[in-house]
Amino acid sequence: MTDIAKLIENTIRADVRAVGSYHVPDSIGYVKLDSMENPYQLPEELRAELGTRLAEAALNRYPVPSYRTLKDRICSKLGVPEGYDVLLGNGSDELITILATTIARQEREAGSKRAVVMAPVPAFVMFSRSAQFAGADFVGVPIKSDFSLDLPAMLAAIAEHKPSLLFLAYPNNPTGNLYDADDMVAIIEAVGEHGIVVVDEAYQPFARVSFMERLPQHPNLVVMRTLSKLGLAGIRLGYMSAAAPLLAEFEKVRPPYNVNVLTQVAAEFALDHLDVLDRQAGLLNEERTRLAAALAALPGVEVFPSAANFISLRVPDAERACAILHGEKVLIKNLSKMHKLLANCIRVTVSTPEENDQFLAALKTSL
Ligand code: PMP
Question: Catalyses which reaction (predicted)?
């Protein structure tokens, strides 16, 4: 009999064996405020129409390889500059993996060090995980205690490590704030032709600011977005735009047919009704204002400014708050263990007024 433990030791990379899998808790029966989803579905009549379109989709065929119709719709509806195209991913998670894979393992000029992926931290965990699995080194540069970029530290780290890839989430997850745009430009310019800077705009539908129109000024800039937060997390569609020669390189690494036919049909349909999704985002922004004010009025709670569909806050005891919320069937994210800047911090998705009130009531009992 083959010894499975020996088999794993002989075949699976040591760094993969050492980490846990990306943990997503089961949420059945819970008020789900841990994943930044839009709580609203498409209106019923639109869902019925979408059902008809999906029923007509040719599931016996592979997707159209160029995805031209969907890409054209994204380019025209979502502010991609004239002359720029997009590359599609199975969520922006896949795009992050493609980016890291494309740059990693290259021999560095000085010695044969591995490629470096850099990001201000705390940041979205997939930036470091994808770098690791692609065989690159990840260098995280701490942000300041007010969650703004530490520009001198970033510039020093860029000079020292010459990152091939640098991620800036705008707004940042898990903190929720927008970095200063001038600081970001300084970083993009400092990285220059040595590296690619990805501005991850996953929360752009709520922040309503973008680096997309700056693409022509910065050949090393990639702007990445997703339809997930806008209300289509279930279909898994991310897109990124960059100068054509750069996109052509990423295209080589993209798995064929990575976006499936059902996603393609649903995304094209949803983009024809973007006004509906935008209105939902507007409602969530109003709720964010209300929820932030209600939280700020609670004793011992520090609320951080957010331009996204979630709010990060510091409570007296995050462990206790999460346990009590869990007992009340409300799922949120405990950020405490992510980074020392986030001690006793939690993150909550902005949801419907009813679910936000449920969260508020449960949180109050924990204070
Ligand atoms: N970027 C950031 C900053 C995120 O917070 C997330 C989701 N949590 C993603 C990318 C991934 O989004 P998706 O794969 O759903 O497109």
Answer: L-histidinol phosphate + 2-oxoglutarate = 3-(imidazol-4-yl)-2-oxopropyl phosphate + L-glutamate
DSSP character for 20?
P
* Angstrom distance (rounded) from CA 102 to CA 249: 8
What is the CATH number assigned to the segment(s) 61-271?
Answer: 3.40.640.10
Q: What is the number of residues in the chain?
A: 367
The ligand 1 atom nearest the CA atom of 94: 14
Kindly give the distance from the C-alpha atom of residue 118 to the centroid of ligand 1, in angstroms, as a whole number: 17
- pLDDT digits 0-9 by tens, 27-82: 889 999 999 999 999 999 999 999 999 999 999 999 999 999 999 999 999 999 99
8 A C-beta contact, residue 278 and residue 79:
no
CATH number of 4-43+275-366: 3.90.1150.10
Q: State pLDDT tens for residues 264-296.
A: 999 999 999 999 999 999 999 999 999 999 999
CA of 349 to the centre of ligand 1 (A): 13
Say if the ipTM goes beyond 0.95.
yes
